[in-house]
Design goal:
alpha/beta, 5 strands, globular, disordered C terminus, 238 residues, single chain, 5-stranded mixed β-sheet
């Protein structure tokens, strides 16, 4: 099964009042495992970025001035998404912005199936007595997902964290462990897998590294270091 874990950054919270997308990050999963395929784009929102938004994601009007517009990356985005199921944290927010952008350029809105990880977390964790927040930060802490890169806030970084949260919520690690034990060191295909001829990939002995490359991380760290000046605090650094 092909899925796309997706996150966005915007100029604000209200697309109805003219806020726009400024960044989108997408990571491909097949049968719950990252394939290494990803799409990450910054966009010129064709408007000023308010200071409140800059304090969240650090992307200024000047920084985005020479980036492509949404219309310039729309085909690439739609091709990458295809008909995959989308996995999004607070999906209503991100989909509202993406569909608004698509309508503005005369394109059809997305019709993909969607998993909202907030709804999934509520369903999975409340039954186990969890009473905390369902923010991505809180879920990372509760599920033991490392937030080492969380200080460098951004769409692709958040999508990378969400991959790990989604795998935990889906019981992916437990399923792999049980299959490994039952198979004596390898996963055995189920009857349904055998009938369809779909091969089952054995689990990796160690977790996959972050899909955010060392070069991307270094570039992001250099960018964050330029934010805020001597006196002004920048949320990315705290």
């Amino acid at each position: 099964m092909r899925e796309i874990v997706l996150d966005t950054e915007t100029t604000g919270l209200k697309h109805q009042e003219g806020d726009r997308l400024v960044e989108i990050g997408c990571i491909e999963l097949v049968d719950g495992m990252p394939t290494g395929e990803k799409l990450h784009r910054y966009m010129n929102p064709e408007r000023d970025v308010p200071e409140e938004a800059v304090n969240v994601h650090g992307l200024t009007t000047e920084r985005l001035r020479d980036e492509p517009r949404f219309v310039d990356i729309a085909d690439e985005l739609l091709d990458f998404l295809g008909d995959a199921q989308l996995v999004i944290h607070n999906a209503e927010f991100d989909l509202a912005f993406i569909n608004m952008e698509l309508r503005q350029i005369g394109r059809k809105t997305l019709e993909n199936d969607v998993v909202d990880t907030i709804a999934k977390a509520r369903q999975e964790l409340r039954a186990k007595g969890y009473g905390g927040s369902f923010s991505l930060d809180a879920l990372c802490r509760h599920l033991g997902v490392s937030e080492k890169a969380r200080g460098l806030h951004g769409a692709l970084l958040d999508a990378d964290l969400l991959v790990k949260v989604y795998q935990k919520l889906s019981g992916f690690e437990e399923q792999m462990g049980m299959n490994l034990a039952a198979g004596g060191g390898s996963i055995q295909a189920s009857d349904s897998d055998s009938s369809t001829g779909v091969s089952v990939v054995p689990p990796r002995p160690n977790p996959l590294p972050s899909l955010v490359s060392a070069e991307e991380m270094e570039a992001h760290e250099k960018f964050v270091a330029t934010l805020g000046g001597k006196k002004k605090k920048t949320l990315w650094k705290y």
